[in-house]
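Good morning,

Attaching, inline, the C-alpha cells for the sequence recovery test we're adding to the shared suite. The designed sequence is right after.
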C-alpha cells in the first residue's frame, strides 16, 4: 500500500471510523466467509419455506450471508423453478425440488458430488431408498433430500378398532360408517383436481397397476386401473358433497372437527400438527395414522423434496453451506418439532421420540416401498393427463371407458412429444 494510502487509513482510524478491506468479497476481520453476500433460496409455500426462514438468521450469524427466502404454492412452483433454471438469469442459489422433477431439472443443476467429497460430508445417514428417488438421477447427485413423506391416511380409532388390509374391506367399513343424515361422512378428501389424483394412484400402485412398463410401453388400460378409478369415485360419493372444492386444509379441518372417519389428505400438512390440540381438534386421543390397504404390492405414494444448486448461481459455495445447514441432523429435528417435517435421515428415525410418535408408520412405509410418478421431462404433462381423467370420472362427468382411453392416449402422446433419453428405464410406473 502506498504511503499516502497508509497515512489516510491512520487518519480514519484515529477518527474512529470503521474501515473494512475487501478480499474476494469477504470483509476482513469478520471471520465470516460470506459477509456481504445474499443468497436467494426458493421453496414451496408453507412449512418448508417457513423452516428456511427459521434458520436464516442463524445462518447469517454464522456465515455472514443473508438469506432471502422466496416461495410459491405447489401449483406454480414448477413453472417458476423451470424458468429460473433455463433463463440463465441466475435468480436463485438454492431450489427445493419435488422428486418427480429431478430428471427434468437435472441438466441445469450442479453435480454436488464434488462438494460432498471436498467437505467429507457424511452421506451414510441418508436413507438410500429415499435418495435414489429424490436427488439422484442417472449417476448424478443433483440434490440432497430434505423431507420424506410416504402417503398415509388418518382414521378414527374410536370407530375403527382393526384397520382393514384389503381395499374391499376398507370400502365396506366406509359404507357402514357413512351417515350423511347426521352430517358425518366416511371420508374427508381434498377433492380439487390438483389433489384428487393421489387417491387414484394409491389403489392403482398397491393393486399392481402401472402407467407403463419399464420400456415405456403404456399399460394404463388394465383391470387395476378400472378398479382404482371405481374406488376413488366411490370415496367421493361417501364424502361431503362440497369436497370437489376442498384442498388439504379443508379436508384436514373436517376430520379434526369430527365429521369423518377417514382423512385422505397428507397427514403432516394438517392432522398431525393439530390432532391432539384441544383448541383445534375434537378428536384428541381418538386418531391414528395407517397405511392404505396393502393390495398386491403395498406401495404407497411418496412425497420427497431435495435441495439443489442451479448451475447459473453465482454464489455456489454459500448455497452449498446453506444446504448442509438446512439438512443437518439438528435442524431436521428442529423442523420436525415445529412443523412435523419428516427427515430422510436414518438417525432421525432411530430416536426414541420418533419411535414413540404417531408418525412412525411413515418409517415403516418407507422401508416397505414407495412410488412416485415419472421423473422424466414428460412426467409433468403425464400427471396433468391423469389429473384431468381422474377428476372427470370421479365427479361423474366421464364414463369409465372414456376415462381409460383418455389416459392411454394422453400418456402415449406425452411420451411421443418428449421421449425419455436413451437408456433410461421406467422405475416409477
Amino acid at each position: 500500500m502506498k504511503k499516502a494510502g497508509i497515512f489516510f487509513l491512520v487518519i480514519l482510524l484515529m477518527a474512529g471510523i470503521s474501515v473494512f478491506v475487501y478480499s474476494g468479497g469477504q470483509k476482513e476481520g469478520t471471520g465470516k466467509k460470506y459477509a456481504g453476500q445474499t443468497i436467494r433460496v426458493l421453496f414451496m409455500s408453507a412449512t418448508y419455506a417457513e423452516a428456511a426462514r427459521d434458520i436464516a438468521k442463524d445462518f447469517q450469524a454464522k456465515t455472514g450471508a443473508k438469506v432471502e427466502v422466496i416461495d410459491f404454492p405447489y401449483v406454480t412452483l414448477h413453472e417458476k423453478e423451470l424458468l429460473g433454471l433455463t433463463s440463465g438469469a441466475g435468480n436463485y442459489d438454492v431450489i427445493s425440488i419435488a422428486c418427480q422433477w429431478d430428471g427434468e431439472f437435472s441438466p441445469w443443476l450442479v453435480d454436488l458430488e464434488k462438494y460432498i467429497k471436498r467437505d467429507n460430508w457424511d452421506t451414510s445417514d441418508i436413507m438410500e431408498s429415499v435418495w435414489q428417488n429424490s436427488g439422484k438421477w442417472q449417476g448424478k447427485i443433483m440434490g440432497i433430500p430434505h423431507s420424506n413423506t410416504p402417503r398415509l391416511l388418518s382414521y378414527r380409532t374410536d370407530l375403527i378398532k382393526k384397520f382393514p388390509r384389503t381395499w374391499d374391506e376398507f370400502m365396506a367399513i366406509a359404507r357402514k360408517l357413512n351417515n350423511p343424515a347426521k352430517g358425518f361422512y366416511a371420508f374427508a378428501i381434498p377433492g380439487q383436481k390438483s389433489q384428487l389424483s393421489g387417491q387414484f394412484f394409491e389403489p392403482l400402485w398397491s393393486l399392481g397397476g402401472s402407467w407403463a412398463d419399464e420400456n415405456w410401453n403404456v399399460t394404463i388400460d388394465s383391470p387395476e386401473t378400472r378398479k382404482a378409478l371405481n374406488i376413488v369415485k366411490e370415496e367421493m360419493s361417501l364424502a361431503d358433497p362440497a369436497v370437489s372444492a376442498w384442498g388439504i386444509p379443508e379436508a384436514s379441518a373436517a376430520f379434526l372437527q369430527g365429521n369423518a372417519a377417514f382423512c385422505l389428505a397428507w397427514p403432516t400438512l394438517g392432522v398431525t400438527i393439530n390432532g391432539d390440540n384441544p383448541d383445534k381438534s375434537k378428536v384428541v386421543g381418538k386418531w391414528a395414522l395407517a397405511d392404505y390397504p396393502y393390495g398386491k404390492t403395498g406401495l404407497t405414494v411418496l412425497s420427497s423434496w431435495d435441495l439443489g444448486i442451479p448451475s447459473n448461481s453465482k454464489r455456489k459455495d454459500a448455497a452449498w453451506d446453506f444446504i448442509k445447514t438446512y439438512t443437518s441432523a439438528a435442524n431436521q429435528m428442529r423442523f420436525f418439532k415445529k412443523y412435523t417435517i419428516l427427515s430422510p435421515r436414518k438417525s432421525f428415525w432411530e430416536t426414541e421420540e420418533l419411535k414413540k410418535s404417531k408418525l412412525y408408520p411413515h418409517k415403516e412405509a418407507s422401508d416397505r416401498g414407495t412410488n412416485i410418478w415419472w421423473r422424466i421431462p414428460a412426467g409433468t404433462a403425464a400427471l396433468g393427463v391423469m389429473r384431468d381423467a381422474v377428476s372427470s370420472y370421479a365427479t361423474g362427468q366421464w364414463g369409465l371407458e372414456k376415462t381409460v382411453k383418455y389416459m392411454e392416449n394422453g400418456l402415449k402422446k406425452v411420451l411421443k412429444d418428449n421421449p425419455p433419453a436413451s437408456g433410461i428405464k421406467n422405475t416409477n410406473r
